[in-house]
Specification:
With 304 residues, this protein is α+β, with helices and mostly antiparallel strands. It has one domain (5-289): Transferase(Phosphotransferase), domain 1. The chain is built from 9 helices and 10 strands. Strands 1-2-3-5-4 form a 5-stranded antiparallel β-sheet. The radius of gyration is 19 Å and the shape is globular. It starts with a helix and ends in a 15-residue tail after the last helix. It binds adenosine-5'-triphosphate and magnesium ion. Adenosine-5'-triphosphate binds next to strand 1.
Amino acid sequence: MNISGEVIREFETGLDPGNLGNSTIPADVLGYGEISTVFRIGDDKDYAYKRMPLFSSIESAEKYTKDYRTYCKHLSQAGLHLPDDDTTIIASSGRQVVLYIIQKQLPPERFAHKLLHSLIDDEIAQMIKAITRTIKKINSFNDTHRLNLEIALDGQLSNWVLLEDGSLLYVDTSTPLFRVNGEEQLDPELFLKSAPSFLRWIIRWLFLEDVMNRYYDKRQVYIDLVANLYKEQRSDLVPLVIEIINREDSAGMEPLTEKEVKKYYSEDKLIWTLFLAFRRLDRWIKAKILRKRYELILPGKIKR
Ligand SMILES: Nc1ncnc2c1ncn2[C@@H]1O[C@H](COP(=O)(O)OP(=O)(O)OP(=O)(O)O)[C@@H](O)[C@H]1O
Ligand SMILES: [Mg+2]
């Protein structure tokens, strides 16, 4: 990939996270994550820039980059297709160190959560089948490595891109989740650092206890994927998608049921709604009362 570090540095220096319109280089947000924001910079149609303002030192950003590369390598070895990518670290004095993960920009309308609204049900069924088969590959990969190496992924629909030519790409590589000899390689404290102290308990609860582990559990990954259909206003597809997953991947797994997916969705919805509300409060305190720079970029109202 031929990325100009200068452009990213200029973008980062002129970025106003509280008001993107004030930034010196115009940018659109392609997507919001829990810890990253995905940008299109200027009129660049080639690359998507994932900004992660998480690091207190260049060393920790470098360690993260190394883990990120290892994670991508494992995903590819498992048989997943990833978009071309690159990384850059931007350190400016007095600010958090920022890691940018740059990916080939993919057409927004080809993301699986968008295709739910444009494909016919038969095509959606094919797409779900392809996603299920890919998630199965992660499991086979983990099985061959026993417990020496386990990789995890986030199966959410917004992480998959089905291109016109039928190829399926996985884009959410920015959280390198893998265990070596049973030990998690991703430092959860990294996520805590980026949060204000009054938020830490909820993140600790989310990331340390539940969220991080659940990505290693195939059944949980599927439940999360099906629960997405509620958020995307396609709950009518829940029975079909459950049936496909149960048919395609029954190995070592109790069949999924609609009831548990519903229950999971209502709990998950509460967690993230609360989390976002707290972050907005924190931004407000920092910006309006303490008059400090707030690094993260928050989404507007999300329909759930
Ligand atoms: N390569 C890309 N091209 C175009 N849009 C993208 C690309 N990658 C991500 N996006 C958009 O941004 C959204 C979020 O991206 P992604 O899933 O990679 O990060 P995330 O969910 O924010 O990850 P995390 O929660 O771990 O920070 C995607 O659902 C998609 O809408
Ligand atoms: Mg994602």
